[in-house]
Amino acid sequence: MDVKENMPENGKEEVVSRNFIEMAIDKDLEEGVYTHVQTRFPPEPNGYLHIGHAKSILLNYGLAQKYGGKFNLRFDDTNPTKEKIEFVESIKEDVEWLGADYEDRLFFASSYFQQMYDCAEFLIQKGKAYVCDLSAEEIRAYRGTLTEPGKESPYRNRSVEENLKLFREMRDGKYADGEKVLRAKIDMASPNINMRDPVIYRVAHMTHHNTGDAWCIYPMYDFAHPIEDALEHITHSICTLEFEDHRPLYDWVVRECEFEEPPRQIEFAKLYLKNVVTGKRYIKRLVENGTVDGWDDPRLVSISGLRRRGYTPEAIRMFVELAGVSKAQSIAEMPMLEYCIREDLKLKAPRQMAVLDPVKLVVDNYPEDQIEYLEVPNNTENPELGSRKIPFGKELYIEREDFMEVPPRKYFRLFPGNEVRLMNAYFVRCTDVEKDEAGNVTVIHCTYDPASKGGNSPDGRKVKGTIHWVAAATAKKVTVRLYENIVDEEKGMFAEDGTLNLNPRSLVVCENCYVEPLLGEASVGDRFQFVRNGFFCVDSKDSAPGNPVFNRIVSLKSSFKLPKA
Ligand code: ATP
Ligand code: MG
């Protein structure tokens, strides 16, 4: 639901596109429901963030920015399960890397446990909450179904005094897990099952990573979340569609707890990527069984995986904007994300030569031991990136696929008798090949035309093919990794037994690659276009100074077309 409206400004008509959330905020501000805008990103620290979370982060941060408001990062850590603290740092790093600046507003929901407790007592005092002794199973059985109303708990009409006493005893550790719960007293006949006296506090004798053993009762998400929002003066609590049915409960909590300027919840559709693994459950399994190299494996769309793959925050932002914000579930495609990184790097990344599958090319009429330096632009489309000098010599490497002994029709690269341009260097004509006993080409021979220096035709004669190369004497040998989707796209995500269909070619390691000498000095954070081969970055885990390992971010070919505006 994207509405275009015309905003006249200085006599000029400017078309501003607003999504449905922005329209709701505009209305709230106009009607004075709120005087400011404050949003938050509330991750549960139980895993690494992925591209879907990036959408939520950038949406929330973007709204705060657009309206001159504030954006909070809040860890939703009310559920005291283990192994959480390690995720906090990774999430902070990812949020910061995406550029969503939460300034000094880093919060932990667990630091509000006392206020949540106070809210619970407040509800008890108002007769809006009661301690219930039914077991979890009984509560479920009493809850009814979509077509049948629920049944009231026999403990529903306990007095305020008794409820207070029992709730305090729950807090003081008098009861075992599951023995008693605190429930909101709403309406067992509500058509919305979430409103049928939901549990808002449970007993759990567990150590919390932040509060230790201070508490043995913990609030349920549906009770805790609105209170967290209200305490932080969040105005628009933006979440995904599965919480739509919980909104009446959200509203009930902030109303009955009598918060001033209560926040409101707005839901949008989650971002899904076709044939891409995002679920924590599946990623965890891939990590644990060693299929991938950790949560930041460059084949994953975890934010740390995308970062290690070489994606930029700018590309992710562009992708999220193209995907749009809507109430309708839709599925984005990986080629759109790839389009965004190509667009971002097109002019930013220097273009260099790297040979990934080398075969030797000897220029027979070039002087032995001579190395000459040719001045070449770093990016033919962006002169601001300047130029560099690259060495040329008698022995070169070219891609094996750029030579064919018996070429098919329309093959314009190197074959016996044919002349091609060595990019930025000279015209060469193939004269001969050497082969090993198995018939594999080992060396290709050619002669060059000294008058074609720079790759320019000396006399107007044309060549149809241009190939890249590196000089053997000065080349740096490196490892390059090529990636594809971890899922076998032809088979689809899941096999019949529920396991993932894995693509056996999702990682191809090329250990014999030769690159220009300057690339040997590349360091983590550097990104390049290797001409004709794609965009590459220096791997942050496996590179050493002077020994970069390159990851292919994306190939150059695209199947994605930007829809016409
Ligand atoms: P997952 O389902 O991958 O385990 P989650 O919803 O459990 O993710 P949370 O930490 O609870 O992870 O999510 C933090 C925020 O990110 C929530 O507001 C949630 O709605 C939002 N979010 C999670 N997944 C997506 C997605 N695919 N697209 C957009 N927002 C998402
Ligand atoms: Mg969740």
Describe the structure.
The strands form 8 sheets. A 7-stranded mixed beta sheet has the order 14-27-28-29-25-26-15, with helices on one face. The N terminus is likely disordered. Helix content is 24%, strand content 26%. The chain folds into 2 domains: 252 residues, HUPs (Rossmann fold, 3-Layer(aba) Sandwich); 203 residues, Beta Barrel (Ribosomal Protein L25, Chain P), CATH 2.40.240. By secondary structure, it is α/β, with parallel strands linked by helices. Strand 3, helix 2 and strand 4 form a beta-alpha-beta unit. It is built from 12 helices and 29 strands. It binds adenosine-5'-triphosphate (ATP) and magnesium ion (MG). Adenosine-5'-triphosphate (ATP) binds next to helix 2 and strand 10.
Number of domains: 2
CA radius of gyration:
31 Å
Would you tell me the structural class of the helices and strands?
alpha/beta
Strand proportion, as a percent range, falls in 25-35%
Spatial gap, N to C terminus: 15 Å
CATH topology of the largest domain: Rossmann fold
What is the name of the CATH class of the largest domain? Alpha Beta
Dominant shape? elongated
CATH superfamily of the largest domain: HUPs
Proportion of residues in helical segments = 10-25%
Bound molecules: adenosine-5'-triphosphate, magnesium ion
Low-confidence stretches: 1-12
Main beta sheet strand tally, sense and closure: 7 strands, mixed
In CATH, the architecture of the largest domain is 3-Layer(aba) Sandwich
Question: How do the strands of the widest beta sheet line up side by side?
Answer: 14-27-28-29-25-26-15
Helix count equals 12
What integer is the average pLDDT?
Answer: 94
Number of strands: 29
